[in-house]
Structure formats: C-alpha cells, structure tokens
UniProtKB/TrEMBL annotation:
It comes from the Bacteria. Residues 1-39 form the signal peptide. Residues 73-277 form the Pectate lyase domain. Gene3D superfamilies: Single-stranded right-handed beta-helix, Pectin lyase-like. This is Pectate lyase. It is found in: Secreted. GO terms for biological process: polysaccharide catabolic process.
Length: 337
C-alpha cells in the first residue's frame, strides 16, 4: 500500500463535501414540503415527507465523484404503497423522491430511471422482485428491506453512473443482493446488512466482458456481511475498487475476491470467523491485484494479496478497524439513517 495514502485523507474536505450535498438536499426537501402543503397536506404530513427527503444525505466514496449523487433532490415526492404505483413512479421521467410505505411485492426486475431517490419510510420492504438501474444516472436507493427476490434485489448495469445504495437490508434472495456490471461507474454501496443469503455483491459481468475495463469504480464501506456466503464483493476488471470499514462475520466461502486484473484496496475492515478473508483469482478467472492494510483478522485466516493498486481520488476518514463490529452492527441496515 502507498504509505502516504492515509495522510492524504482530509476530514475537513470530507465534511465540506457532505454538508454541501446535504444543504442541496435540504433545499430540495423544503421545496417539496411547500409544494405538498399547497396541494392540501397537513403541516405534519408535509414535514414528514421533508424529513424523509433530507435523510438521504450525501455519499462518501466514488458516488461523490463525477459531479456527485443527489438522486431526486429538487423533484416532487411521491408516496407509494402498491407495486403498480412504485413501478410507475420509479420509471417516470424527471427527478423525484419515491417514498415506499409498507410491504410491496414485486415481480421480476423493474426499471429505475435517472434522477431518482427510492427511499423507504419506517418498516418499508420489497419482496419477490428487484430494482433494475439500467442506463441510468444519479440514483439513490435507501432504507429498504429486500427479501426473497427471484433474480437480483438491485442490479446496476449498462453504463449507469453515480448510484448510491445505502442503509438497506438483503436476505433470502435467489441471486445477487447488489450486482454492478456492464461499464457502470461511480457507485457507493454503504451501511447495508446482508444476512441469510448466498451471493452478495458481484462486480463485473463476466471474464469475457472486457468493456468493463476502465469502469466499475465502486466504494463498499460500513456494510455488515452477516453469515452471507460469498461475493463481498467478487470483482472483475474494476479499479480502483475500495473496500473499507466493513464487518465480515461467519462468511462460509470468502470475503473479497479480485480477478481479471482488477485493482482492489481492502483496508480497515473487521473479519471474524472468516477462513478466507481475501482471494486473488477465483474459479476459472485470472488473478487480479489486491492490497490489504489495517484489517483485523479475528479467528480468521490471513489475506491473499498481489500487486499494487491505484489510489482513490476522494478524501475519506476511516474508522479504526477494531471499532467496526460495534459501529456497523449499530448503524447498518434500514432504520438507522
């Protein structure tokens, strides 16, 4: 690892980036509240919607680059409680904050258009189907419990950019919880809880999809991989893929795998009862590159590393690895915004 990497992190820069994005979202939320109150909602209802929109905040990591990720800030807020209403709202043109109430059972994969925040009200869940972020830009998915999906829970593909997947939970699905592929870029996956599930997070479509080279810049931080088996993430081609401050516990197969000349930084994570924290190469895939630093290996194997990896351009201030179990178990998943 580059010995100056951590010295280049600026807490002040990170704070200013966060507050700048948050102020913009608050301004959009205030407009939303005013619009809804004018339309006849009570002051309490309008305030609740405004608070939900503000809760989106601003991402750290790759989703903060390339102009940043604000989702549907500045657009109308639409509250949905049925599958039909949800599908119509997330696929419509223009910016919008789509607030999910209750449990919605979807069928198959459902398109999310650009400039959307899809955010759950307290207790919101999506079952049966998933969200397809396909050729879309500037999307936030936040505060939703996903369960029992038939394909993927969230699929990001076909050149989608500036996507933030944050404070969700994933359990019991068929395939990936969060799969990112086909030239997608500038994505942050943060504060999610994956449990009782096999294939967690794939990054890169296939060994033969070389168009992914130069893309797939993704940050994974403060996620709780809780007894999930594999792909946390499994990486092809992407660089720099930044995996930091995640809590890995009882992962049966492996934690992180770097293949097909991907460049992966694995730092300040906590691995507990994980026999294979990191792998270089996997299955029939060629080796990737992987640097590991500052991690805790509690009753776990030692990491496999290889080569060097390019630094990330953004500022960040990681939590100490030894504190990650407490921080992540307390803060990951829906209900913890």
């Amino acid at each position: 690892m580059n010995s100056t990497r951590k010295n280049r992190r600026s807490t002040r820069t990170r704070f200013l980036a966060y507050t700048g994005g948050f102020v913009a979202l608050c301004a959009g939320a205030a407009l939303i509240a005013g619009t809804l109150a004018t339309a006849g909602e009570t002051g309490t209802e309008a305030a609740t919607v405004a608070e939900t929109a503000q809760a989106a905040g601003s991402p750290e990591g790759w989703a903060s680059e390339n102009g940043g990720t604000t989702g549907g800030a500045g657009g109308d807020t639409v509250t949905v409680s049925s599958a039909q209403a949800l599908v119509e709202a997330i696929s419509a043109d223009g910016p919008a904050v789509v607030e999910i109430q209750g449990s919605i059972d979807l069928d198959g994969m459902n398109d999310v258009a650009s400039n959307k925040t899809v955010i759950g009200a307290p207790g919101a869940e999506i079952t049966g189907g998933g969200l397809d972020i396909d050729e879309a830009h500037n999307v936030i998915v936040q505060n939703i419990a996903f369960a029992d999906w038939g394909d993927d829970a969230i699929n990001v593909q076909d050149g989608s950019t500036n996507v933030w997947i944050d404070h969700n939970s994933f359990t019991g699905g068929y395939d990936g919880a969060v799969d990112i592929k086909r030239e997608s870029d500038y994505v942050t996956v943060s504060w999610n809880h994956v449990f009782d599930h096999d294939k967690s997070m794939l990054l890169g479509h296939s060994d033969g999809h070389t168009a992914d080279e130069g893309h797939l810049r993704v940050s994974y931080h403060h996620n709780f991989f809780d007894g999930s088996d594999t792909r946390h993430p499994r990486v092809r081609f992407g660089e720099t893929v930044h995996v930091y401050n995640n809590y890995y516990r009882d992962n049966e197969e492996y934690g992180v795998a770097s293949t097909m000349d991907a460049g992966v930084l694995v730092e300040d994570n906590y691995f507990e009862n994980v026999q294979t924290p990191t792998e270089v190469g996997y299955g029939s895939s060629d080796d990737g590159r992987l640097e590991a630093s500052g991690n805790v290996y509690d009753n776990s194997g030692q990491p496999e590393t290889a080569g060097s990896v390019a630094d990330v351009p953004y500022s960040y201030n990681p939590d100490p690895a030894q504190d990650i179990p407490a921080i992540v178990t307390d803060g990951a998943g829906p209900g913890n915004l």
